Amino acid sequence: MKTFLRGRNLIGDLDFTKEEVETVLDVAWDLKRKRALGEPHPYLRDKVLALLFFFSSTRTRSSFEAGMAQLGGHGAFIDSKTTQIAHGDTPKEIGEIYGRYFDGIAIRHCDWAVGNAYLNEVAEAARCPVLNMQCDIYHPFQCLADLMTIMEKKERFRWSVVTDRMLDVYRKVVAASRDDGVREG
Q1: Within 10 A of 39 (CB to CB), how many other CB atoms are there?
Q2: What is 18-153's CATH number?
Q3: Assign residue 38 a region: left if phi > 0, alpha if psi is -120 to 50, beta otherwise?
Q4: Cβ 110 vs Cβ 134: under 8 Å
Q5: Each residue of 118-176: pLDDT tens digit?
């Protein structure tokens, strides 16, 4: 498999190709096996991931902090209300500042018609990868976790079925948003 993921953002559910998703899942399976066997796997030693939350979350915060610790790095929890974001720091400023301090920036911003745009603005200004812990449109890490679970539970797995189901879900979400009078864009 030829994939190059180093330094890449993961903001949308479909940002990676099928081959790249397969690579991510191969690595995830290997990490899960190593954890189960008690094998050290400090691949992110001396790396710090900013965990910027606009909305609190038990599972998201816990899983990202635990994952960074298990990989030898550190997840720095940041509540947007306790920073200058609450006083007007722009997404561009956050991207520039956090991009210098951290090795990656993970953001959870679920405000409808705001969250995804915020992540993309931060990503434009940051010199490190930006990861979407959940926004108003996408939840890529949940998609990957769900995909892993499906693969774990299903003996025969077909990508076409998953792709078709994901497209059906997106069509329904877009149709529902149009019915509610919410406009795309």
Answers
A1: 10
A2: 3.40.50.1370
A3: left
A4: yes
A5: 999 999 999 999 999 999 999 999 999 988 888 888 766 665 555 555 555 544 444 44
Report the helix count and the strand count for the chain, using DSSP H and E.
Answer: 6, 4
3-state secondary structure of 50: strand
Which residue's entry shows tokens 């050290």?
A: 40
Question: pTM (2 decimals)?
Answer: 0.82
The alpha-carbon radius of gyration of the chain (Å, integer) is 17
Q: How far is CA 84 from the centre of its chain?
A: 23
pLDDT tens track for 58-68: 999 999 999 99
Cβ proximity of 115 and 135 under 8 Å: yes
Alpha-carbon distance of 103 to 130, in angstroms, equals 9
Cα angle, residue 106 at apex, residues 105 and 109 outer, rounded to 5° = 125
Q: Give the span between the Cα atoms of 38 and 29, in whole angstroms.
A: 14
Q: What is the pLDDT of residue 158?
A: 62
- The torsion angles phi and psi of 182, rounded to 5 degrees, stand at -90, 135
Domain spans in the chain, listed from the N-terminal domain onward: 18-153, 157-185
Residue 10 DSSP label? B
